[in-house]
Amino acid sequence: MANNLYLVFSEWPDGLDRSEFHAWYAEHAQENIESPDFVSAQRYSVRNVAGAGEVGYERHLAVYEYEPPMSKWRTDLSARLESGEVELPDWFGRIGFTSWNCTPTGPKLRPHGATDGGSNGGDDS
């Protein structure tokens, strides 16, 4: 199972409706993961946390899971953009982006006694 992540933090442009940005990004994330070696995408609304509450303004995060190497899907996605298969809106250049590539440094940790899938494997009778 892939556990390499590509994180894209973004802020929608001034003057653009939040719902229009989110509707476009849902389609865009799907277009992105059609490139080879993408496994999945999940979108999030994110805010800073201070103490027990959220502070600041809302941002957007797209988390892409992929199989290495990153260059394979980057090359494919660039070619699809150049060919016009993937189209970007005219306001795309006004989106503030920060991207992070994440590769694991060790195994995924789980709580002691946790099981995958939620089944205890025994007979419930």
Overall description:
By secondary structure, this protein is an alpha+beta fold. The protein has a single domain, classed as Alpha-Beta Plaits, CATH 3.30.70. Helix content is about 25%, strand content about 35%. The protein has two helices and four strands. The protein has helices spanning about 20-30, 70-85, and strands spanning about 5-10, 40-50, 55-65, 95-100. Strands 2-3-1-4 form a four-stranded antiparallel β-sheet. A hairpin with a 2-residue loop joins strand 2 (about 40-50) and strand 3 (about 55-65). It is flat. The model is unreliable at about 120-125 (pLDDT under 50).
Write the layout of secondary structure elements.
Blueprint: E1 4-11, H1 18-32, E2 38-50, E3 53-66, H2 70-83, E4 96-102
Antiparallel strand pairs: 1-3, 1-4, 2-3
Query: What low-confidence regions span 5 or more consecutive residues with pLDDT below 50?
Result: 119-125
CATH class equals Alpha Beta
CATH fold naming: Alpha-Beta Plaits
Per CATH, which architecture?
2-Layer Sandwich
Question: Reading side by side through the largest sheet, how are the strands ordered?
Answer: 2-3-1-4
Total individual domains: 1
Reported for the largest beta sheet, the result is: 4 strands, antiparallel
Number of helices: 2
Please give the oligomerization state of what you see: single chain
